[in-house]
Amino acid sequence: MRIHLISVGRRMPGWVEAGYAEYAKRLPPECGLTLVEVEPVRRTKSGSTSQAREEEGRRILKSVPKGAAVIALDERGQSWSTEALAAQLRAWLADGRDRALLVGGADGLAPDCLARGERRWALSALTFPHPLVRVIIAEQLYRAWSLTQGHPYHRGG
């Protein structure tokens, strides 16, 4: 199983690339994390936010691998504790299908992306800048993996 993190945005700051890479490389091949960057829509004065979000949504959905189960990251989604994410990861591994995690741009995910998701996952009640979300997801997936393996990285109560 592979996890495909499909995220709007290119040319991230160095700290984002380094943070993402650090945690992604820690994951084993059977639970590998792949970043798929989607070109953001160039904002113009005449274009609307909803039009830009819709076009980014089309680009995101084109990037979803065939047969992958889709999870849309959305502030109105379900929050998971680290232990709950570890349980999700175990279930994903047992299922064997690839997973595609969809992360929208500055204006969020298009309704078509939300509708395509089998689940919606909220990282927090807080709002994060979308580049930081890449780092958070990679770290949390590694933390969940370490928990499934009894590794001491996760020191939760």
Question: What key attributes describe this structure?
Answer:
five-stranded parallel beta sheet, Alpha/beta knot, alpha/beta, 157 residues, 5 strands, single chain
Rounded radius of gyration (Å): 15 Å
Gross morphology is globular
CATH superfamily: SPOUT methyltransferase, trefoil knot domain
Order of helices and strands: EHEHEHEHEH
Uncertain spans: none
Whole-number count of domains: 1
Secondary structure category: alpha/beta
Q: What is the total tally of β strands?
A: 5
Main β sheet profile: 5 strands, parallel
State the strand order across the main sheet: 2-1-4-3-5
Q: What is the CATH C-level name? A: Alpha Beta
Mean of all residue-level pLDDT scores: 91
Strand content: 15-25%
Number of helices: 5
CATH topology: Alpha/beta knot
Alpha-carbon distance between the termini?
Answer: 29 Å
In words, what does this structure look like?
This protein has five helices and five strands, in the order E-H-E-H-E-H-E-H-E-H. It has 157 residues and is an alpha/beta fold. The protein has one domain (2-148): SPOUT methyltransferase, trefoil knot domain (Alpha/beta knot, 3-Layer(aba) Sandwich), CATH 3.40.1280. The chain has a five-stranded parallel beta sheet with strand order 2-1-4-3-5. Helix 3 (82-95) crosses helix 5 (130-148). The longest helix is centred in the last third of the chain and has 19 residues, at 130-148. It is globular and about 55 Å long. The two termini are 29 Å apart.
